[in-house]
């Protein structure tokens, strides 16, 4: 593996949720969970003494809420990216989180690969929003239809192309390819690219 793994802090007041996320991310060699916190206060303490690349946080926390925590992290630890992972898709929560400085917003029903990919993307400085989140912010119903560009990406995935090859074919960056794949997997309810191709065949998209 090239480079050091991305150091992740998990913030959620439910230990079972943190344990589940740790288990999901433990199979990745490019990510490492270096801390867990059950409150904003615990998270701040860990951030003061432990180098953290990405904070994955819920919004509803005991005491200080997640949005205040996001703002504090962005002010005191600007190199650290924040990814919201929550069950709440209220448009006001989404807008306030992004305004506070969060780079990504996913819902807790996101698949393991989508969460891991989102951590990597926000660490790289990119924004990641679940399709359902985008729809809520726009005030539109959630659509499961793939856009023309997403269809292009899916067809190239089905043809066995790598992300780099897809990027060259479509004249887009690999980070953009990964974002399209996140949206494709979310819309097709697929855990990974292979499952997305299978779902695409079932739905007559390929």
Question: Would you write up a description of this structure?
Answer:
With 206 residues, the chain is of the alpha/beta class. It folds into 2 domains: 6-138, 3-Layer(aba) Sandwich (Rossmann fold); 148-202, Winged helix-like DNA-binding domain superfamily/Winged helix DNA-binding domain (Arc Repressor Mutant, subunit A). Helices cover 51% and strands 14% of the residues. The chain is built from 10 helices and 6 strands. The protein has helices at residues 15-25, 40-49, 66-76, 91-100, 112-123, 131-138, 148-158, 163-170, 174-188, 193-202; strands spanning 6-11, 31-37, 54-57, 81-86, 104-107, 128-129. The protein has a 6-stranded parallel β-sheet with strand order 2-1-3-4-5-6, sandwiched between helices. Helix 3 (66-76) links the parallel strand 3 (54-57) and strand 4 (81-86). Helix 8 (163-170) crosses helix 9 (174-188). It is globular, with a radius of gyration of 17 Å.
What are the SSEs and their pairings?
Elements: E1 6-11, H1 15-25, E2 31-37, H2 40-49, E3 54-57, H3 66-76, E4 81-86, H4 91-100, E5 104-107, H5 112-123, E6 128-129, H6 131-138, H7 148-158, H8 163-170, H9 174-188, H10 193-202
Parallel strand pairs: 1-2, 1-3, 3-4, 4-5, 5-6
Helix pairs in contact: 2-3, 3-4, 4-6, 5-9, 7-9, 7-10, 8-9, 9-10
């Amino acid at each position: 593996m090239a480079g050091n793994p991305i150091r992740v802090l998990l913030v959620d007041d439910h230990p079972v949720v943190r344990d589940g996320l740790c288990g999901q991310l433990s199979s990745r060699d490019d990510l490492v969970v270096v801390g867990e916190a059950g409150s904003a206060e615990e998270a701040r303490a860990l951030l003061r003494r432990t180098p953290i690349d990405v904070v994955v946080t819920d919004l509803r926390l005991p005491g200080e809420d997640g949005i205040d925590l996001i703002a504090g992290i962005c002010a005191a630890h600007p190199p650290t990216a924040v990814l919201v992972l929550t069950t709440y898709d209220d448009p006001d929560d989404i807008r306030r989180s992004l305004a506070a400085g969060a780079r990504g917003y996913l819902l807790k029903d996101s698949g393991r690969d989508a969460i891991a990919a989102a951590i990597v993307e926000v660490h790289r400085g990119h924004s990641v929003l679940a399709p359902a989140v985008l729809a809520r912010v726009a005030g539109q119903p959630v659509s499961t239809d793939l856009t023309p560009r997403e269809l292009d990406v899916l067809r190239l995935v089905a043809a066995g192309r790598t992300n780099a090859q897809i990027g060259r074919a479509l004249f887009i960056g690999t980070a953009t390819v990964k974002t399209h794949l996140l949206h494709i997997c979310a819309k097709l309810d697929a855990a990974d690219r292979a499952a997305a191709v299978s779902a695409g065949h079932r739905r007559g998209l390929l």
